[in-house]
Specification:
Keywords: Membrane, Transmembrane, Transmembrane helix. By secondary structure, the chain is mainly α. Helix content is about 95%, strand content about 0%. The chain is built from one helix and no strands. The protein has one helix at about 1-65. The longest helix has about 60 residues, at about 1-65. The termini are far apart.
Length: about 60
């Protein structure tokens, strides 16, 4: 039984280190994907704004004619 306790203690000693590594990797992945999603969203908004201004110019040109 003492061996089980010692073995369990070793596992507990190593698990916080692996936990920190896994969490830091997950945080990096989340940050990278979050940033790329944000950039994609900004590009989409920019495309919508450009398309809207094109449509507005076309309508203004048709009204002038």
């Amino acid at each position: 039984m003492d061996e089980d306790i010692v073995g369990g203690g070793d596992l507990v000693a190593y698990s916080p280190i692996s936990y920190v590594v896994v969490v830091s990797i997950l945080i990096n992945i989340i940050e990278k994907t979050g940033n790329s999603d944000q950039l994609i969203g900004q590009r989409l908004l920019l495309n919508v704004a450009e398309e809207d201004s094109k449509q507005k110019r076309l309508r203004e040109n048709k009204q002038e004619d």
